[in-house]
Amino acid sequence: MAGVVELLAPFFPNGVLQYAVGGLFVGLGVVLIYAGTGISAGASTFLESTLSYVSELPRFNRSDYLASRDWRVVFTVGIVAGAAVYALTIGPGGWTTEVQWWRLLGGGILVGVGTRLGKGCTSGHGVCGVGSGSKTSIVNVVTFMAVAIGTAQLVQALGVVP
C-alpha cells in the first residue's frame, strides 16, 4: 500500500488524506440516502425535482419528483452549505482557482446540458451507478473520462490558460 501512495504522490502534492476523507463522506452519504429512501443520490435530478415547486410542466411534476423533492432540496442545500463552510473556514485566499467567473459559469452550463444528455451526472453514474454495477453508468463514466481527458489535452495543446 505504501508503494501505491508513493507512486501517486506526484499527482497529489497536498497529500491524499483530504481526498480519502472526502471520498468516505461521499460514499457514506450515498449509502445513507439509498438506505433511507431507496433512491440513488445523483445530483442532476435535484434541479428538476425542485422545479416542481414553481412549475406546472408535467416534466417537473412526475410523482417520483413530488414524493422526493423535500429531501432533495435539503441535500442540495447541504452541498452548497458545505462548500460555503469550506470557503469560510480556510480563510483569506479561499477561492481555489484562477479561472475567471464567466468561464466557470459557461462550464457549469455545459455540464448541466451534459448531465441531461447523459441522463445523469458524475455523482449519479460515477458514485452510485458504478457502485451498483450498472453497465449504462460504467459506459457513461468511461465516456465522461475520455471526453474530459481529450478536452484537457486539446486545451493544453492550444495554450489556453485560466
Please tell me about this protein's structure.
With 162 residues, the protein is mainly α. It is built from seven helices and no strands. It has helices at 2-8, 17-37, 44-51, 63-89, 101-117, 122-131, 135-158. Helix 3 packs across helix 4 (63-89) and helix 6 (122-131) crosses helix 7 (135-158). The longest helix has 27 residues, at 63-89.
Provide a concise account of the structure shown:
This protein has 162 residues and is mostly helical. The chain is 70% helix and 0% strand.
Largest sheet: none
Ends distance: 35 Å
Count of strand segments: 0
Q: Provide the structure class.
A: mainly alpha
Number of helices: 7
Q: Strand-and-helix sequence, N→C? A: HHHHHHH
In what range is the share of β-strand residues? under 5%
Helical residues, percent: over 70%
What overall geometry do the principal axes of the alpha carbons give?
Answer: globular
Radius of gyration: 18 Å
Low-confidence stretches are: none
Give the overall average pLDDT.
82
Summarize the helices and strands and which ones pair or pack.
Blueprint: H1 2-8, H2 17-37, H3 44-51, H4 63-89, H5 101-117, H6 122-131, H7 135-158
Helix pairs in contact: 3-4, 6-7
For this entry, give a set of tags.
globular, mainly alpha, 0% strand, 162 residues, 70% helix, 7 helices
